[in-house]
Amino acid sequence: MATGDRPFKVVVFGASGFTGQFVVEEVARAADKDAFKWAVAGRNKEKLQQVLQQASETLGKKGLELEVEIIICDVNDPPSLAAMCQKAAVVLNCVGPYRFFGEPVVKACIENGANHIDISGEPQFLESMAMKYDSQAADKGVYVIGSCGFDSIPADMGVLFTKNELKGNLTAVESFLSFKSGPESGSIHDGTWQSAVHGIADQENLKKLRKQIGQKPLPVVGAKLKRRGALFYSNELKQYAVPFMGSDPSVVKRTQRYLHENLQESPTQYGAYVGVGGVPSVVKLMFAGLIFWILAKFSFGRKLLITFPEFFSCGHFTKQGPSRKQLEGAAFTMTFYGEGYSKDRDPQCGKPDLKICTQVKGPEAGYVATPIAMVQAAVTLLKEPKSLPEHGGVYTPGAAFAKTGLIERLKSHGIEFISNPET
Q1: Which of 162, 170, 211, 242 is the most core-located residue (most Cβ within 10 A)?
Q2: What is the per-residue pLDDT for 2?
Q3: What is the largest CA-CA distance in the chain?
Q4: Contact, 281 vs 184, CB < 8 A?
């Protein structure tokens, strides 16, 4: 990873976007602590200056807008992307939806020797980048690491943490996600909503992509993990739950495949679920979910969903996103229940004889925990090159950071990894 001569260790691309503002503030905190030069990049100089001014006020760090360089570039202008990448050791790509805007940035990073980290929760984008660019990134010694935000560092690193905590062979694990809102409730910026709309609309293309990739199923080690229903009452959460529709299952599976095929580790089966509340919440979810699914299948319906996110999401997604007050006090908890076999037992014979419970807990998921995870992934990439996979490539967080100190870094920044919690 030869990037020591670059003017900037980190460049935040898409810094003037909603999430980009929070990533900029987190990079500023990390740069103070770890003493590295960084820059912001995007299309509009005035907006980027406003982002730096806002960060300066929020952090109480005067003159930040004078210290941090602004790079003008556009995802539709390849020469400007190339110029940005040539200045960066790591590009933090905050420009989504990634299915529309992600590939040119990945391509420019690889061609110009810059490492790339994103916070995509879009399986089609993540898996297509691995298929198209893994060998090119390996040849260039570039690390392209996707889903380094709330999607999917808590899940991916949480499974690895659980695996390391079990004194035996972890063969299956389920995660149960719950959220807590702050005193002023909250909402999610509609950029995430747009990604979900297009993800549902493009499900058939994701299936075609996976057929094209053509990987063999991972071997099932130990007792087969039973899949839960589309809606069930979770004794773990004490509320109704549904399968988690984000990128976590896809990302964890890719990590387990990498560890099995490259490090000869036994793969762990995984199921991901999220709590939805009591009966009234279930009724609301079923009604809204049916309308969403039907509309997302047609171009006119998608236009309606994207134009009126607040109406169709019952207020959960808004064009303005949450206020800073709404972020205060919000939190997430992801609880892992795993099972496995003692070291002296054959997992192909008999039932599991070991069980384990772990948790990953953190602040508000989308705009507090996500920037922390993304920036600490970048810091780990810069500071622990010898602990990364031997060659560059397109990686999941777990594949890239399995042998690093990322979990300890996250712990020191407010994202907890807890073994045997009181639940």
Answers
A1: 170
A2: 55
A3: 65
A4: no
What kind and span of H or E run contains 132?
helix 123-140
User: 229 φ, ψ to 5°?
Assistant: -75, 175
The residue written with tokens 């509609």 in the block is 190
Token look-up 């099972």 returns 339
Give the integer Cα–Cα distance in Å for 309 and 297. Answer: 16
Give residue 244's identity as a one-letter amino acid code.
F
Length of the chain: 423
- What six digits make up the tokens of 79? 């020469």
CB atoms near residue 143 (< 10 Å) = 26
Torsions phi, psi for 67 (to 5 deg): -85, -30
Among positive and negative, which fits the CA dihedral 344, 348, 354, 356?
A: positive
- Smallest CA-to-CA distance from 38 within 16, 63, 68, 15 is with 68
pTM of the predicted model as reported, rounded to 2 decimal places: 0.94
Contacts 24+ apart (CB under 8 A), 363-366: 363/327, 363/330, 363/331, 363/332, 363/414, 363/415, 364/182, 364/186, 364/322, 364/327, 364/330, 364/331, 364/332, 365/150, 365/179, 365/330, 365/332, 366/19, 366/149, 366/150, 366/188, 366/189, 366/192, 366/322
Q: Could you say which DSSP state residue 149 is in?
A: B
For 80, the token pair is 């400007």
Identity (one letter) of the amino acid at 355? K
Q: Beta strands 169-180 and 88-93: pairing type? A: unpaired
What does pLDDT average to in each consecutive run of 10 residues of the chain (423 residues)?
82 97 97 92 97 95 90 97 98 95 98 98 95 97 98 97 95 96 81 86 85 90 93 91 93 97 96 94 87 90 91 86 91 96 90 95 97 98 97 98 98 96 60
Yes or no: say if 45 and 70 are a contact pair by the CB < 8 Å rule: yes
405: tokens are: 């100190």
DSSP secondary structure string, 207-268? HHHHHHH-PPPPP--SSPPPPP-SSEEETTTTEEEEE--SSHHHHHHHHHHHHHHHH-PPP-
pLDDT for residue 1: 63
**Nearest-angstrom CA–CA distance, 38 and 379:** 12
DSSP letters along 55-109, please?
Answer: HHHHHT-TTHHHHSEEEE--TT-HHHHHHHHHTEEEEEE--S-HHHHTHHHHHHH
Mean pLDDT of the chain: 93
